[in-house]
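Q: Please design a sequence for this.
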């Protein structure tokens, strides 16, 4: 009997990953295809939606050729994705009429500022769990409809559709037959009422978005449609298990119990903690989102979002030429004893949680004639850990508890300097998943529930893969001194 596989597609900010999991959720094969990042104006970030779709078909074809897995042995597809990024397309032709407005993009900042000035912040926060910020999808959609000629009228006529990247993939993979999203992605748009679990008509009106543009919202563990990837598979297989990448990582890390949390390190980072089945109001600086929806229940989470973590390393490589690859950052950071007083605050796309200051700009401070590239690279890596600490400390202070451990995942967790420094800053163990693609694993878990392969969260927990633990080594005085320097650096741009 031949093995059967689930294909997980992880459509992230910098690349699309293709991962084959066996029936025990073991990762057997992987492939990644990068796509271009576009920066047409200061603070603007775009993707080409057509390029991403073509990469989907190209990636599946290459993966099948390289893995040796027969196309007929892929029995289902799971999807996880960059969340708030949004686009608009023609319902009749399936052609995009806008670029992908990436979650890092600040072009909706003026729209958000106007809504704040008009006093809508509390209403929006109470219904959506989110704050008014261009990070979330709504202002991007409004900008598309208002600034691209003719689109507002076409939207009112019912000719256009909008969606986050999961919707865009599902629409294309099903040949335009299915326009759907899941609860987690919907909860990151600033248009979804997390109490009624429905699109909020008053909020849609506020942003000038016709309801006809919106996808149907399903639970994460449902079947969304079927696809054969334009004939690459011998028969259509179900698309089952869909959720945003940070939520996928929470599920993939088996954080099913209230109080359990994780940090996902990617282009940006998400720190998320499960708060159970009640959508509690988040502390100032954090937001409330749907954590996941499965087995007929919706679970919620507190979350803090950092705009630039892995993107900081990429910037040092691409724009400054300090690195020949991200792997070199670890060795460079370890080549010096400390940061020599150098701090980098990576506000390249504003500051996210807990400050939510979209107009903040990055700084490097503390430079002397003795500062070198190793100090700057080390400062960039340390900045990632400081930002995670900012959020964890806020969550813990509100909860009145201490951190037992932090479960971590994502590409940057391979950097042992960063992970050890993170443990030192938090003064708590870091549990590193051996599967950096925890988001894809979480989508597969939802897929298994949708397919009836497992029937409970407890069963999913039993599939949990053993993690590597790093424990803190730094003394309290050194920790406090370093963190005080970071806080001072941040104050310079607030």
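A: Design:
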């Amino acid at each position: 009997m031949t093995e059967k596989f689930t294909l997980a597609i992880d459509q992230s900010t910098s690349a699309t990953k293709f991962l084959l999991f066996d029936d025990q959720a073991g990762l057997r094969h992987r492939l990644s295809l990068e796509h271009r990042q576009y920066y047409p104006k200061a603070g603007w970030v775009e993707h080409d939606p057509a390029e991403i779709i073509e990469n989907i078909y190209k990636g599946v074809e290459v993966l099948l050729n390289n893995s040796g897995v027969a196309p007929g042995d892929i029995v289902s597809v799971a999807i996880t994705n960059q969340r708030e990024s949004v686009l608009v397309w023609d319902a009749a032709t399936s052609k995009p009429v806008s670029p992908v407005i990436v979650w890092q993009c600040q072009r909706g900042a003026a729209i958000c500022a106007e809504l704040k000035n008009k006093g809508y912040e509390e209403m929006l926060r109470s219904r959506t769990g989110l704050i008014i910020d261009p990070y979330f999808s709504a202002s991007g959609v409004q900008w598309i409809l208002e600034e691209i000629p003719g689109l507002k009228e076409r939207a009112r006529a019912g000719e256009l559709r909008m969606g986050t990247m999961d919707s865009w993939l599902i629409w294309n993979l099903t040949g335009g037959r299915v326009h759907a999203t899941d609860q987690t992605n919907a909860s990151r748009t600033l248009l979804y009422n997390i109490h009624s679990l429905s699109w909020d008509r008053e909020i849609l009106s506020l942003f000038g978005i016709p309801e006809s543009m919106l996808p149907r919202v399903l639970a994460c563990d449902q079947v969304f449609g079927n696809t054969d990837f334009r004939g690459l598979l011998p028969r259509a297989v179900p698309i089952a298990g869909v959720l945003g990448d940070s939520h996928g990582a929470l599920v993939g890390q088996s954080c099913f119990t209230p109080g359990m949390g994780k940090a996902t390190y990617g282009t940006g980072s998400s720190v998320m903690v499960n708060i159970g089945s009640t959508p509690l109001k988040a502390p100032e600086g954090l937001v409330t989102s749907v954590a996941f929806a499965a087995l007929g229940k919706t679970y919620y989470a507190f979350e803090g979002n950092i705009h630039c973590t892995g993107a900081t390393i990429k910037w040092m490589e691409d724009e400054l030429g300090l690195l020949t690859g991200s792997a070199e950052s670890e060795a460079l950071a370890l080549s010096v004893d400390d940061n020599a007083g150098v701090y980098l605050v990576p506000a390249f796309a504003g500051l996210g949680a807990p400050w939510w200051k979209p107009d903040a700009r990055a700084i490097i401070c503390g430079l002397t004639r003795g500062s070198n590239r190793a100090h700057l690279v080390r400062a960039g890596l340390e900045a990632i850990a400081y930002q995670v600490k900012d959020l964890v400390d806020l969550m813990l202070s509100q909860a009145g508890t201490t951190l037992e451990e932090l479960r971590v995942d994502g590409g940057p967790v391979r950097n042992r300097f960063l992970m050890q420094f993170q443990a030192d800053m938090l003064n708590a163990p870091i549990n590193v998943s051996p599967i950096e693609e925890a988001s894809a694993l979480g989508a597969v878990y939802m897929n298994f529930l949708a397919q009836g392969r497992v029937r409970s969260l407890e069963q999913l927990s039993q599939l949990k893969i053993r993690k590597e633990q790093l424990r803190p080594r730094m003394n309290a005085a050194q920790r406090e001194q370093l963190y005080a320097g970071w806080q001072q650096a941040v104050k310079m741009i607030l």
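Q: Thanks. Anything notable?
A: Residues 254-432+464-494 form a domain with the Nucleotidyltransferase; domain 5 fold (CATH 3.30.420.40). The chain has two domains: 5-244, 254-432+464-494.
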